Amino acid sequence: MRRRSFLALTGLAGLALTGCGGAEGNEGTLSFRNPLRIPPLLDPRPGPDGVRRFSLRLQEGRSELLPGRRARTWGVNGAHLGPTLRARRGDHVAMSVTNTLGEASTLHWHGMRLPAVMDGGPHQMVEPGATWSPEWTVDQPAATTWYHPHPHGRTAVHVYRGLAGMFLLDDETDGTGDADGTGLPRAYGKDDVPLIIQDRKFTEDGELDEDFGGTFGPLGDDVLINGTYDPFFRVTTSRVRFRLLNGSNAHVFTVGFADEREFHVVAGDAGLLSRPVAVRRLRISPGERFEIVASFEAGEDVLLKGFPGGDEIEDGSYDLLKLTAAPRLAPSAPLPARLAARRGWRAGV
Q1: Higher model confidence: residue 83 or residue 212?
Q2: What stretches of the chain show up as alpha helix (H) in DSSP?
Q3: How far apart are CA 307 and CA 7, in angstroms?
Q4: CB atoms within 10 A of CB 96
Q5: In what side-by-side order are the strands of the sheet with 108-110?
Q6: CA 273/CA 122 separation, integer angstroms
Q7: Which phi and psi (to 5°) does residue 9 adopt?
Q8: Of 192, 188, 228, 208, nearest to 320 (Cα)?
Q9: Which residues neighbour 26 within 8 Å (Cβ) at sequence distance 6 or greater?
Q10: pLDDT digits (tens, 9 = 90+) for 3-20
Q11: Is there a shared CATH topology between the 4-33+181-330 domain and the 39-170 domain?
Q12: Is residue 225 within 8 Å of residue 197, measured between CB atoms?
């Protein structure tokens, strides 16, 4: 995982995967009528003891994923998906994970450096009605990580039903006062926008189709972004930082804009790259995260797409998100030529 900040460049072409039962995609079927849902930000102040405490509840719910139809879903602190967590390098964080589901589950901190006893893997199941309380000190550079269940043999189902969310790490140790020392956009939900991309299959009555047949699991023609079907986002600044998470079970997306405009990759799984890298398409596998910065002109409409690849697990052309720029855009800082130095990384990583 720690080499991905380099592989984010050479690996923009990704790893070749093969499967069966590829999807066809949703190209041309959307009207982009639903505002993109932005997960609530959970950024608690430290208590008197200096600890940031997060209370997370795994729960069942019902969600209108498709228009006019409600589906049985799972979520964290809500009916579907979970809040975006935020912490800083040097923080001592304490989690209270309460399971109100009808079966045991876990929460795994994917991309986080922490002791194994706090990891939330299959060896640390949280039984129904129980609470698990891991805590650790954050000691890694700024990065986009995420959390999800990791029960043995049930991870795919639990994530598919909606147990997932982002965990953002800031690094203020470089003395600049900036969260990552770069001047990158960072107003959460405005010019620093999380995008959890998940393909899904639905039954005729709008329920999640949990037919997990095939080699890799479900490959759906429909896509949810942050749990939003048919989404649009109103751009208000000349540059926007998107934090991409492929939260799908199997589908590999090649992401880019319909007009083939250039954008810049600024971070991968392990955190910031040493410099922005200009690309037109970006291949992202399940569980991977990338941060990109895109530029916009006032009044334009731009479509973020998923382009088909060479394997069945990449089949289908997808319309992901319509980006509608306001008539006037607030100016953004120039994209830096170099990003913050990586502190605490060993040579060769």
Answers
A1: 83
A2: 4-10, 155-161
A3: 20
A4: 14
A5: 41-42, 84-88, 165-170, 143-148, 108-110
A6: 31
A7: -95, -60
A8: 228
A9: 221, 222, 223, 316, 318, 319
A10: 444 343 433 333 333 334
A11: yes
A12: yes
Q: Which two structure tokens, joined as six digits, stand for 87?
A: 């912490």
Report residue 139: phi and psi, to 5°: -145, 70
Please name the residues in contact with 239: beta carbons below 8 A apart, sequence gap of 6 or more. 185, 191, 293, 294, 295, 296, 332, 333, 335
Q: Name the superfamily (CATH) of residues 4-33+181-330.
A: Cupredoxins -  blue copper proteins (2.60.40.420)
CA pair distance 148, 160, nearest whole angstrom: 10
Q: Which of 297, 314, 282 is nearest to 195 (CA)?
A: 282
| Residue 269 token pair | 């799984």
Q: Express as a percent the part of the chain with pLDDT over 90.
A: 81
Reported as a single tens digit per residue, the pLDDT across 130-179 is: 999 999 999 999 999 999 999 999 999 999 999 999 999 999 754 334 55
The beta-carbon contacts of 125-131 under 8 Å, at least 24 apart in sequence, are 125/151, 126/58, 126/97, 126/98, 126/99, 127/99, 128/99, 128/100, 128/101, 128/102, 128/103, 128/104, 129/99, 129/100, 130/98, 130/99, 131/96, 131/97, 131/98, 131/99
pLDDT digits (tens, 9 = 90+) for 287-329: 999 999 999 999 999 999 999 988 888 999 999 999 999 999 9
Q: 3-state SS of the chain: helix, strand, coil percent to 5?
A: 5, 45, 50
168: nearest Cα among 281, 52, 283, 252: 52
Separation of first and last alpha carbons in the chain: 10
Domains in the chain: boundaries: 4-33+181-330, 39-170
Confidence of residue 215 (pLDDT cuts 50, 70, 90): confident
State how far the alpha carbon of 318 is from the alpha carbons of 1, 25, 198, 200, 309, in Å: 27, 5, 11, 12, 12
Which residues, at least 6 apart from 348, have a Cβ–Cβ distance to it below 8 Å?
A: none
pLDDT band at 56 (very low <50, low <70, confident <90, very high): very high
Spell out the CATH class of 39-170. mainly beta
